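A student in our group prepared the protein record below, which I am reviewing. This is what I was given:
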Amino acid sequence: MIVVVDASVLVAELLRKPGRELFRHPELRSVVAQDQWEETQHELPKRIKKIVKGGHMSQSQVDSILGDIDEIFSSRTIEVIPSSVYEEKKELALRRVPQDPNDWAPVALAMTMEAGILTRDGDFLGCGLPTWTVETLRLELENL
């Protein structure tokens, strides 16, 4: 099963051990649009800083998580797909998510790869593609 991971889900789930384990499921191929990966790289440090500042995580825990995240991407457990692969679908994707034009990249990539989108963002509803929540995807994978 292929899913295109939305940036907000990617940031949240990379910070959770169950989320990182989900991405490692052998029946799951997780991909992220280059544009969404760039957003993730911008948001992840901000989220981590906020968590540490709030006293919810130590620096050693952060270092361990960052090492795990590096391994997830270096092993291609989650693949970053270059924009050149899905860019030709941009105009169609923009029509599919008129509420938030910034969401065009995951839609274009999902159309290109004939995949669903892993998201919590309601703007993807009605885009003409399957959408998954973390919870429903986890349940589906448990039953494969």
In short: The chain is about 55% helix and 10% strand. The helical segments are 7-14, 17-23, 34-53, 59-74, 83-86, 90-96, 104-113, 134-142.
